[in-house]
Amino acid sequence: MKILMVCLGNICRSPLAHGILKQKVKDKQLNWIVESAGTGDWHIGEAPDRRAISIAKKYGVDISGQRARHFQPAFFEEYDLIFVMDRQNFADVCAQAANKADLEKVQLFLADDIVPDPYFDDNLFDPVFQMIDKRCMEVIETMSKKKE
Ligand code: 4NP
Fold it and tell me: Where is the signal peptide (predicted)?
């Protein structure tokens, strides 16, 4: 199973989702691969935002080694599941799909809600971490029953 986490910049939300799920996958000894990317290209090659690194560190997750990547249409082939953080990410990723099979891989990470963008609001990093962490736990529980 290869999972891609996607947000706009790939420096705040998707690096958190990437790092948190990756840690849980390791703890559960699942052989899933978890990575991330952004629909925007401004931050390619950069480490996550220092506020994202810091909130993750507070809860025992190290995301400092991640480097931002730009979402590519070729990623539809590479990943089984593409989780997007908000509806704009959903629209931007779906616009690059080549067929129905690609579209079926794209899901809102929170299913029926969005992960708010904390980039312009320092106070959102903690609640964003919590909502991503809770959802990663659910993803592990529901999907590890179905597929290794
Ligand atoms: P992210 O947050 O999509 O959660 O990584 C953002 C990061 C950068 C920008 C916007 C959102 N930006 O405009 O540069």
Answer: none
